[in-house]
Write a structure and sequence with these properties.
The complex is a heterodimer of chains A (86) and B (501). Chain A is mainly alpha-helical and 86 residues long. Chain A has three helices and two strands; from the N terminus they run H-H-E-E-H. Chain A is elongated, with a radius of gyration of 20 Å. With 501 residues, chain B is an all-alpha fold. Chain B is globular and about 65 Å long. The termini of chain B are far apart. Classes of the chains: A mainly alpha (86), B mainly alpha (501).
Chain lengths: 86, 501
């Protein structure tokens, strides 16, 4: 199996989405029944927020580092094509 | 006239001033009316974000947390992912917009599948389901005017004021005017929602943690799923975020912004900053909704909890300023929706079926007439006082979410066919309407909108596999792949290098 930057970006994103969806989020919810607050904030909120931040950081790192996303295409001329009638 | 209304009026005049400034730059042609002539990072980030967050941000969100507790933060999925989709999908739309001159998604869908039927279906569905969404903004504005005037202004008057302002904003400046006023409103709603929420909390409790502790002592069910009313089940969770996240990306006011970036770098950073903006704005919203249960246990319309708390617990001037932010949230979405649907009316209906020889100026004028027609339809819908804002949001998103397979399939899958696009849209839409409005069915607890989206995906794939694809679809996808392929990084073995670049 081979990895590249995009694969890592999408893997982290999908993993984070799984973490904030059933059944995982409802397993965390079971824990929250006995521990509803952590540091004074709702435990479930903190769990969700943590993974949302992971997604955003993942996106920022990918935007900064991925060669495929470095927007070098901005230097290219885009040839305009007339659309054929149908 | 009370102080709140004075501040709101001043705010509206400032907005009109900004729109007038934008109007001076308007080149009076349909292309600039539609795309704004290429927007920069700051304006594109804020116009996308402010358009994405509607009256729901100030009204529906707090109301949902008030009713159902922490399950509301499922919402976070449809605040982070839109930025990612705006970049991943948006850059492909941006390129074909430049190459083939598409001005809207239905323009693209019609051409990529070489089918007028597909174009008409996309136009019709997005226009029809945008009307209830504009109505959400009208309802939000009506609540705001009603609340801030202490009942002096009626619900109907609020809706009519909304209509008048929307018409003026869109008439004055086209996309550039809408984008610039959106940017101003985006800043205002960000500061308003965060600052206003924090003030309300600290006016009643020593800290946010104390506020949560008090809310827990009052209603502990708010802190776990499925919430006090048993609404946020696993099925509700999945249905809600899938339908809203993907549905939102099909609305014309969002898709039009795919074509509006000055260049790819602008698109990329606008997408990143939008994810941050859309998610950060809600930091204190669940707390406000939850303490609303203690501070206003018998509120008639939970959707109004935030403005009501502001008026009760913060100084009048501050409350009015923050509520202007709520108005900003509603109007920045409303004007973008009216602008986008009227653009579709001009480019996808008038130009293609009424007057094929129409020049850019004629289409520009038709778009402006479209603003009045669609705006009026939305206000009439709002005056019927439909259901709660959060439910209306799911309904309108469900209607457009069935377009996802056909629209996105044509960007990536060379095997996609026009027959599949038509079948998936028609059957998906019929299913959505039947399950949501007629049978009111939710098999296995999943919403009708979710089922119709999934079934339309299956139909799209199945029919594509047994029908013959168009050569043009392949050409369009090849042109996209070629444009972006050159700089794709080579795959590397994991043991050699796991770094991103």
């Amino acid at each position: 199996m081979k990895f590249n930057g995009k694969t890592i970006f999408f893997s982290v994103l999908i993993f984070s989405i799984i973490m904030v969806n059933p059944p995982i989020v409802f397993w965390v919810n079971d824990y929250c029944v006995t521990h509803p607050l952590t540091f004074g904030w709702p435990t479930l909120y903190l769990w969700l927020e943590f993974w949302f931040v992971v997604m955003i950081v993942d996106f920022i790192v990918a935007a900064l580092k991925l060669k495929a996303w470095n927007c070098s295409q901005d230097a290219k001329e885009i040839e305009q094509v007339s659309r054929p009638e149908f | 006239m009370n102080l709140g209304l004075v501040i709101l009026t001043v705010y509206l005049f400032v907005l009109l001033g900004i729109a007038l400034y934008a109007a001076k730059q308007d080149k009076k042609n349909i292309k600039d009316f539609a795309t704004g002539g290429g927007l920069g990072i700051f304006i594109l980030t804020l116009t996308f974000s402010a358009t994405y967050h509607s009256a729901y941000a100030f009204m529906g969100a707090g109301g949902f947390a008030y009713n159902n507790g922490i399950g509301w933060w499922c919402n976070g999925l449809w605040t982070v992912l839109p930025g990612v989709l705006f970049w991943v999908w948006g850059r492909r739309f941006w390129f074909i917009g430049k190459r083939y001159g598409y001005l809207s998604v239905s323009d693209y869908a019609s051409d990529v599948y070489r089918s007028k039927t597909v174009g008409v279906l996309v136009t019709l569905i997005t226009m029809v389901f945008t009307i209830p969404y504009v109505a959400i903004q009208a309802i939000g504005c009506s609540y705001i005017f009603q609340t801030i005037s202490g009942g002096m202004l009626s619900y109907t008057a609020g809706a009519l004021i909304f209509f008048a302002i929307m018409i003026v904003l869109v008439f004055l400046g086209g996309m550039k005017g809408v984008a610039i006023t959106d940017a101003a409103q985006g800043v205002f709603m960000f500061v308003g929602l965060l600052g206003g929420s924090l003030w309300v909390i600290l006016a009643n409790f020593p800290s946010v943690a104390d506020a949560y502790q008090a809310a827990f002592s009052h209603t502990p069910e708010l802190f776990t799923l499925p919430g006090p009313k048993g609404v946020v089940t696993p099925q509700d969770w999945v249905s809600r975020w899938v339908v809203i996240t993907f549905g939102m990306m099909m609305f014309p006011q969002v898709t039009l912004r795919f074509f509006a970036g000055k260049n790819l770098n602008v698109m990329k950073w606008s997408a990143v900053f939008s994810s941050i903006y859309l998610t950060m704005i809600y930091v204190f919203t669940p707390c406000v909704g939850m303490i609303g249960r203690i501070l206003m246990p018998d509120i008639a319309a939970p959707d109004t909890i935030f403005p009501e708390l502001l008026l009760k617990y913060t100084p009048a001037v501050f409350a009015a300023l923050i509520i202007s932010g709520a108005l900003a949230a509603a109007m920045s979405t409303g004007d973008s929706q009216l602008h986008a649907t009227s653009t579709m009316l001009a480019t996808d209906v008038y130009k293609k079926y009424v007057n094929k020889k129409a020049d850019e100026n004629a289409m520009y004028n038709v778009a402006k007439v479209g603003v009045i027609i669609i705006g009026l339809a939305s206000v009439v819908f709002a005056l019927t006082r439909p259901t709660a804002l959060a439910d209306l949001l799911v309904l309108s998103n469900g209607g457009v979410a069935v377009l996802v397979p056909a629209v996105i399939g044509g960007l990536y899958w060379k095997r996609a066919t026009r027959e599949a696009a038509i079948a998936s849209i028609v059957i998906g839409e019929l299913l959505m309407i039947t399950m949501t409005f007629i049978l009111k069915a939710a098999p296995f607890g999943l919403s009708g909108a979710f089922w119709s989206m999934m079934i339309s995906l299956v139909i799209f794939v199945g029919v594509s596999l047994v029908t013959k694809p168009q050569e043009h679809t392949k050409q369009v996808i090849d042109s996209i792949n070629d444009f972006f392929a050159e700089d794709e990084e080579p795959a590397q073995a994991p043991q050699k290098n796991l770094a991103l670049d």
